[in-house]
């Protein structure tokens, strides 16, 4: 018997795999373009909102707002009970199989469950607000903020779930439009209106609550357009509780731990420090977390794609997409990082002179977030390939480490200590995730092209930094240097050359710009 491989079959298999990858890149490109455009608009809106809050509220009241918002973000994840990740994972699978009854059942049952749990969380926060403010933080002024966010909590959790359903259906336009445009813009307009009539923090709370409720209604209407048979119960209704609930329960504790970790620095600084320190730190953290903007945009598309590819057994395509997303996310993020390092003091001045003290904090947080971006979407690789329990363990380990570091560093260094604790914890967490992805999938996010990106950044950034240091540029000169950095960075990337996967992305970008010029 002839056991030699058929070269024709091998070539065909390679061609099919290559075509599958190209199709995935095309989807990533379409979704990425939409997500980035909406995301950039959303970042501008949020930035304007934070400038307005910083200048009108001041550091102390902004600190109270930051603590209340941290409580909202943590409890909203409790209200979601992990279903926002569960619906992305399973709706992507069920929709790919054409099982509309399961898609319908997943969406509607998840909405009912989240409405109940988030309402209970809101009631609990309202009831405990006085005790938390006075006994927990020794800041009685925090109680009204907690009650205001408690009222908004059910609508906020529901909105997060609805946008996750759109992600699961792989309609990134609806997800990005609501998350990055409609909701933040409505919050901005409502809050600006309340400031115009003389309200302060109470106006922020009213504006956030009303705009979130409005966004919920609009998103549900949009979801019915995406999935017209959503309320057609005669066509079948099935909720795979035995699959979805265990997955979501594991994700709940992971996500809750992750959210606590994200806001633990602010909460512990609120317990151990004064409100103005929390406000200064919170503003620095807001800016520093913009570092992962492109990662969040690509992750919104990457997560359902990975779930689908893994479910279909297309391991090679999954790894290629993982590495391509990791490289391009880093490539786009490095200029943002350089901007915050180079112009950080001037950026903080926009929010008011009180916030100047946050410059060292901004530097440390920016570096920590850059490391988070640099290792790629390793957390999503674990969750979307069926390892939410492992990610839960990672979150617990990093959470305990963060508490210990905060208790040690905040009394010594204040806000800078909180930033240092966060950066160390984020680095440790991502190194753990990276090693786990390598052990499970025998892959990592790095390629030779990653070194080229880093080389281009070091050469361009180092040159502009040295130039600014020699000539002691004022703000105008530094802004001009930023333009020089971008030109040099892009030129070096082209000079160093692109990988095969990158050439596909670059060709698509060139065709897009050619059509725009035409």
Q: Give the proportion of residues in helices.
A: over 70%
What can be said about the biggest beta sheet? none
Number of helices: 17
Record field, number of beta strands: 0
- Domain unit count: 3
Distance between the termini: 59 Å
Protein structure class? mainly alpha
Strand content: under 5%
What characteristic shape results from the CA principal axes?
Answer: globular
**Overall mean pLDDT:** 85
Radius of gyration: 24 Å
Main location: membrane
Subcellular location: Cell membrane
Keywords: Cell membrane, Membrane, Transmembrane, Transmembrane helix
Transmembrane segments: 35-54, 74-94, 106-128, 148-169, 181-198, 204-223, 330-351, 357-378, 390-409, 415-434, 446-467, 479-498
3D structure, described in words:
It is found in: Cell membrane. Its main location: membrane. This protein is an all-alpha fold and 518 residues long. It folds into three domains: 37-239, no CATH class; 251-297 and 304-446, no CATH class; 447-511, no CATH class. Helices cover 86% and strands 0% of the residues. It contains 17 helices and no strands. The relative contact order is 0.11.
Characteristics:
518 residues; 3 domains; disordered N terminus; mainly alpha
Set down the secondary structure blueprint.
Elements: H1 7-80, H2 83-96, H3 100-136, H4 142-168, H5 172-196, H6 201-226, H7 241-272, H8 275-288, H9 293-311, H10 315-349, H11 359-374, H12 378-384, H13 388-413, H14 415-441, H15 448-471, H16 475-496, H17 500-517
């Amino acid at each position: 018997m002839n056991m030699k491989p058929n070269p024709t079959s091998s070539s065909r298999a390679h061609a099919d795999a290559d075509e599958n990858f190209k199709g995935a890149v095309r989807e990533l490109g379409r979704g990425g373009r939409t997500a980035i455009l909406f995301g950039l608009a959303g970042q501008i809106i949020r930035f304007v909102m934070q400038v307005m809050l910083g200048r009108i509220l001041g550091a102390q009241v902004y600190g109270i707002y930051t603590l209340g918002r941290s409580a909202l973000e943590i409890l909203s994840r409790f209200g979601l009970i992990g279903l926002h990740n569960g619906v992305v994972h399973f709706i992507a699978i069920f929709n790919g199989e054409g099982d509309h009854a399961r898609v319908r059942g997943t969406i509607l049952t998840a909405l009912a469950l989240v409405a109940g749990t988030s309402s209970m969380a809101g009631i609990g926060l309202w009831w405990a607000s006085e005790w938390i403010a006075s006994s927990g933080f020794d800041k009685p002024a925090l109680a009204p903020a907690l009650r205001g966010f408690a009222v908004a909590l059910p609508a906020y959790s529901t909105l997060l779930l609805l946008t996750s359903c759109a992600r699961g259906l792989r309609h990134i336009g609806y997800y990005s439009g609501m998350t990055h445009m409609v909701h933040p813009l409505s919050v901005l307009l409502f809050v600006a209106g309340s400031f115009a009539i003389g309200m302060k923090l109470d106006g922020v709370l009213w504006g956030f609550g009303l705009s979130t409720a409005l966004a919920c209604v609009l998103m549900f209407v949009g979801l019915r357009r995406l999935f017209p048979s959503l309320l057609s119960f005669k066509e079948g209704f099935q909720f795979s509780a035995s699959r979805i609930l265990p997955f979501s329960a594991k994700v709940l504790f992971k996500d809750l731990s992750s959210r606590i970790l994200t806001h633990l620095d602010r909460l512990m600084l609120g317990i151990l420090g004064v409100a103005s320190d929390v406000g200064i730190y919170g503003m620095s953290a807001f800016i520093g977390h913009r570092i992962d903007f492109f990662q969040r945009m690509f992750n919104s598309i990457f997560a359902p794609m990975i779930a689908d590819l893994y479910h279909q057994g297309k391991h090679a395509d999954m790894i290629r997409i993982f590495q391509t997303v990791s490289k391009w996310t880093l490539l786009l993020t490095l200029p943002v990082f350089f901007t915050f390092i180079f112009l950080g003091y001037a950026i903080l001045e926009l929010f008011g002179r009180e916030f100047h003290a946050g410059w060292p904090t901004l530097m440390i947080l920016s570096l920590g977030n850059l490391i988070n971006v640099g290792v790629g979407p390793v957390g999503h690789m674990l969750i979307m390939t069926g390892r939410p329990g492992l990610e839960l363990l990672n979150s617990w380990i990093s959470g305990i480490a963060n508490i210990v570091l905060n208790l040690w560093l905040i009394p010594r260094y204040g806000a800078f200590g909180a930033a240092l604790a966060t950066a160390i914890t984020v680095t440790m967490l991502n190194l753990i995730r990276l090693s786990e992805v390598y052990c499970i999938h025998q892959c990592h996010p790095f390629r030779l092209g990653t070194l080229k990106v880093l080389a281009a950044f070091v050469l361009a950034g180092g040159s502009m930094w040295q130039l600014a240091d020699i000539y002691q540029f004022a703000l105008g000169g530094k802004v001009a240097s930023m333009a020089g950095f971008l030109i040099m960075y892009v030129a070096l990337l082209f000079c160093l050359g692109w990988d095969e996967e990158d050439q596909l992305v670059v060709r698509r970008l060139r065709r897009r710009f050619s059509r725009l010029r035409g």
